[in-house]
Amino acid sequence: MSSQENPPSAGPDDPAANLARIKAEIETALKEAGREPGSVALTAVSKFHEADRIEPVLAAGHRVFGENRVQEALKKWPPLKEKYPDIELRLIGPLQTNKAKEAVAAFDVIESLDRPKLARMLASEMEKQDRRPKLYIQVNTGEEAQKAGLAPAEVPAFLAQCREEFGLEIEGLMCIPPAEDDPAPHFALLAKLAKSLSLSGLSMGMSGDYRIAAQLGATHVRIGTAIFGARPVKEEITGA
Ligand SMILES: *Cc1c(COP(=O)(O)O)cnc(C)c1O
Fold first, then answer.
1. What is the total count of domains within the chain?
2. pTM for the full model?
3. Is 93 in the pocket of ligand 1 (CB under 6 A)?
4. What atom in ligand 1 is closest to the CA of residue 206?
5. Residue range(s) defining the domain that contains residue 83
6. Which ligand 1 atom sits closest to the C-alpha of 208?
7. Residue 83: which residues within 8 A CB-CB, separation 6 or more?
């Protein structure tokens, strides 16, 4: 299966219907791969979309959302959380150390941990706030200069440092393959790396390739465009 079969278009303009269709497609992919039903959780990536666009998806019962900017999340989500207290918010974009405090307060999962300075800040904020978002290490599987994340070879030492020096628990790994590449080898690489490090979480797969990711072991896929349609503002997904 190639990513061409699954272009990141949204279909009918009905986010809740798109979400239901995608969830069914993921279950089919899991079945084909001989994986356990329900073993992939879907993060609905709501970045750049307003609350009124997100509400139908909440009303349909979905609770896991991804945002890539701390400031945007702080504006958008508190009112929605009042209405739906069991929302899980995942930070999937790069995090500056000076926003670590707000990120620890606002997010349940941070998927973009990629350097010792940030690990130190997060550890200190988690201690201060007595709040422990789950953490994923971002891996730059394509070793692209403009993209955030550690090179695969750097991950074992960084993981050890997170644990031993900063006392952090790491749940898994996250990657964003190069846009122009076949994503499958990148997903396979991330899966292999996670397995070798006994990490259970694997965040990989977006609108164009979630079925492949589900087949190759993803535990979390991050899907925006295929649910909500094109984002109102164009942006390059570099995670840089
Ligand atoms: C925006 C974004 C996504 C979602 O991308 P789509 O192609 O719209 O599904 C996934 N992961 C990250 C890190 C992103 O920034």
1. 1
2. 0.93
3. yes
4. 9
5. 15-229
6. 7
7. 58
Please state the atom number of ligand 1 nearest to the C-alpha of residue 222. 10
Whether residue 235 lies inside any domain: the answer is no
Q: Is the CB of 220 under 6 A from ligand 1?
A: no
Residues 203 and 111 sit within 8 Å (Cβ to Cβ): yes
Residues 16-63 have pLDDT tens digits of 999 999 999 999 999 999 999 999 999 999 999 999 999 999 999 999
Tokens coding 33: 């791969």
CATH number for position 82 = 3.20.20.10
| Cα–Cα dist 186/203, whole Å | 12
30: Cβ–Cβ under 8 A, 6 or more apart, which residues? 36, 37, 38, 39, 40, 214, 215
- Residue 49 Cα to ligand 1 middle (Å): 13
Q: 203 in a domain, yes or no?
A: yes
Going by C-alpha positions, the residue among 133, 64, 112 that lies closest to residue 238 is 112
Q: Answer yes or no: is the C-beta of 179 below 6 A from any ligand 1 atom.
A: no
In a domain, 28, yes or no: yes
pLDDT tens sequence across 187-237? 999 999 999 999 999 999 999 999 999 999 999 999 999 999 998 876 656
Q: Is residue 236 part of a domain?
A: no
Tokens of 60: 């349909």
CA dihedral angle for residue 216, residue 195, residue 146, residue 185, rounded to 10 degrees: -40
Ligand 1, atom 10, residue with closest C-alpha: 222
> How many angstroms is it from 6 CA to the middle of ligand 1?
15
104 lines ligand 1 (CB under 6 A): no
**CB of residue 202 inside a 6 A radius of ligand 1:** no
